[in-house]
Each structure stands twice: as C-alpha cells, then as structure tokens.
Amino acid sequence: MCSKIRLLWVCAGTPAAEDAAVLAALEGVDVDVFPDIGPALSRLRSSGADAVLVTLPIPGWTAEEALEEMRRTSPSVPVLIREDNGAFDRAVRLARMGAQYYFGEPLCAADVARRIEAAAEERRSADLVSLGEAIGREPWRRWLVGESRAVGSVIETIRLVGPRRSTVLITGETGTGKEMAARALHLASPRAHLPMVTVNCSALPEHLLEAELFGHVKGAFTGAIQSRIGRFEQADGSTLFLDEIGDMPLELQAKLLRVLQEREFQRLGSSETVRVDVRVAAASNNDLPEKVQRGQFREDLYYRINVVPIEMPPLRERLGDVPLLVLHFIEKICRLENIPAKQVGGETLERLSSYSWPGNVRQLENAVEMAVALSGQRPVLYPSDFPLPSPVRGKPSRYESAPSITVPDHGLDFDEVVGRFERSILDQAMRKSGGNKKLAADLLRLKRTTLSAKLRSTSGKLCREERIAACP
Q: Of the residues 322, 437, 448, 472, which has the fewest C-beta atoms closer than 10 A?
C-alpha cells in the first residue's frame, strides 16, 4: 500500500550537471522542482512531502532562513541542504537547527539519492510509529486523521478541553467531520465510559424535537401513548451532541438555554423537575453570528454554546492529508467488507491530492468506497477507479464566497470598498500563516515589505474611517 516517495527540490536557475545526475538517480521518486522557496512552501503546506532538498544559492535566502521556514511549515519533513564548498561550522550550525543532512562537498549522484531516500523512508516509519503511539496513548485520535497544521490545531484543542465540562461549538462546511470531532471530544473526556448521545436538530419538527430532547409523559400530546425519557436524560453523565443546532426553532432555543444554564428541565406534560449532568457539544455548518444578526438565532444561546470554538477545516485547505485519509478509508472499508486491503499507487494519490473536494472528507470517503466496490477482485486501485465530478456550482458557503459588490443608485466610495476588501484578504493570509508575515506574503505572492506596508496602510485607513463614522 506504500506510495512513491515525494520530494520537493528547490533549485534556482538551470540545474547543474551534478543536479541532473542526482535527478536521474532518483528512480521511483516523485520529484517536484521549484525555482524559489515561496512556491515550495505553498506546496508543502497544501500537499505535504516526504523530504525537501534545497540546492544553494537561492536568491534572497540564506541556508538558515530556508531551513527555518521549511521546519516551521512542516516540522516532521526532513530537509536536506546542498551547497558546494560549504564550511564545516555551517554544517554544524544547520544540523543544530534541524537539517537532516548538509552536502557541503561534491558527492556522487547515487550517494545523494540514497541519503534522500533514506531520510524520506525514516520519516515515513517515524510517522507510523508516532501515530500508532499517539493512538495508543489517546484512543480518541483515531477519529481525527491527518498531519496538517489545521488538524493539529483541532487535536490540541480537544486534548486541552476534553477533560473539562465546557460546552463546545464545532463549525465547518458539510462533510468536514464535525461529528468525528465530537466523538473524539467525548472519548477524550472522563465520560467516555458511557455512549455519546446524538440529536439532529434539523431532522424533526419543533414539537417532536422538544419531546426528543426532554421526553414526555403519557398523554402529553396526540400520539403520546406512553411515557418516554428524552435525550438529555439518556445523556446524563455523558455527552449530548446537538448536530445542526442552527436549525433549531427560536422557541425551543429559549428552553435549551435554560437547561444549559440550570442543568434542569421538565418533561412535556409534567411538572416534575429533572436534574442532569450533561456535557453538550453542538455543531453547525451555518454562519451563526449572521443568523444572530437576522434574529434567527438567540444571541445569548450563541454565547452559551460557543464557550470553546472548534472549526473543522475544509479538505481543500489540507490536501496534504488526502493520502493518509485514502489509506485510512481503504483499510476501514476493506475490513468491513471482509476483503484483503487494496493497494494504491503514487499516481492515484497525486491525482486525488490535486482535486478540490467540494464535498470534503465525506465525499472522499464515498469516492474510496465506490473505487473499492468497482475494482472487483483487482488488488490495486488506479486513477480510473476515481471518476471525479466537476464541482457543483451552487450557493457559495461563507467559507468560499466570492466578493459580490452592487453599486447602489446613490453611488459608493470606491476607495473605501476596495480598502475593506483588501484588508479582508490580508487578514485571511495572516490567520492562515499564524501571524507570520513572510509566510503570509508568500501566500499572496507579495514581498514581505510590501505586505507590511499594506497592513499599515489599511489599518490606518480603517481607523480613520471608524473615527469619522463615530463623529455626530
């Protein structure tokens, strides 16, 4: 089931004869060559790699700067640096900074290729061992597959908040795995010995949803032929997962708010107060702050459930996790079907990793299940087993909406509108880069100095506009 090694090679200018020889010696390795550090960092963030080779000199970069950015972007990927006539103290300094190997003197192409392949294989083995150890220590980790920074942030949040009682709001597009995050949260808590209870708030009409949540006594409404406890009572001592909470009717939202605050409720048709100890995790693919503004969701309830927010990233923002997810789904599906595990080649994984997956992880799992079913007795899955549809063009979500500006009859302030749109782009890049201006500049294809100037400029403009708007 192993795929081909993926190497990112940063080599400015025309490769020297020695580089061409190394490239020829790397048989069985998928090599992507980049002329600069910036594009290589973007690929490393989006698709990952098994190893990175940097051939110096790279204009505008020192070996130390290049290594630092590569390590910050993907700490587990080995970085090898090649520089003719390098100094010994430089090799020592780079090794201490985390370089896997420093080629400071000419070596034969076969030796260089062997070291690259060995570093990549060592990294793969270490990943498998560390993942297995992590799952052994934290069984809930098996619900969250991926090594990207975005998934790592979700894992760290669940690790911290899992043992607590805090209410958690999980947001994200449809198919990103919000319920998987809720299950991981439950299993990371002291309540894991009891089953998690799930309610889909959009699947039932209001009167039935209220009875589903709080239970009812016999005769409470037409059809209530016997008493029944609700989901809150079932989840006493455990976790209650409220999926699609943004679709809950307003009147029922008020009752839910009281339960979350007081930890008590009354069954429908009863005056008896029932007290419960329930940890609530809620999920929504709606923009809840926008629904609050429209009066469709209670503001006090929003703040009550949004104690700890977790946002599940769309798959297009963590394409480097696609190979791991594919292998995970193949193993899962083949085990359920009681058939030998299928294999998948590097070309297939590369194709799947380049698709945008508008349906996110759920769409990927369905695609793998279809490929396994249609491959019959064949032990290997090929690219042709994954006919990928064109993305459906529907109403864009808040996560991928394109700007749409309508000029009103009375006109608009062009500079103000463009300035706010520019600031929105800059803010997104800064969030994605974790506040690192150099990485944010790479994302926007800007120089770092240009990005800094734009941040200062747009901040100043917005402050002036806000002061003007505040004047009577």
A: 472
Percent of residues, the chain, with pLDDT higher than 90: 32
Q: φ, ψ for residue 324 (rounded to 5)? A: -65, -40
Same domain, 358 and 233: no
Model-level pTM? 0.59
Tell me whether residue 293 is in a domain.
Answer: yes
Which residues have C-beta within 8 Å of that of residue 148, sequence separation ≥ 6? 48, 313, 318, 320, 321
Give the pLDDT confidence score for residue 410 in this predicted structure: 63
CA atoms within 13 A on the CB side of 363: 21
Residue 161 and residue 139: Cα distance in Å, rounded?
16
Say whether both 201 and 283 belong to one domain. Answer: yes
Amino acid present at 24:
A
Among candidate residues 172, 194, 169, the one with its CA nearest the CA of residue 182: 169
* Alpha-carbon radius of gyration of the chain: 27
Phi, psi dihedral angles at 256 (to 5 degrees): -65, -40
Q: Which H/E stretch holds residue 195? A: none
Contacts of 361 (CB under 8 A, 6+ apart): 175, 176, 177, 315, 325
Structure token pair of residue 283: 């999920």
Question: Token digits for 141?
Answer: 């980790």
Q: Name the pLDDT band for 107 (thresholds 50, 70, 90).
A: low
Token reading at 270: 């009863």
Last residue of a domain, one of 132, 166, 199: 132
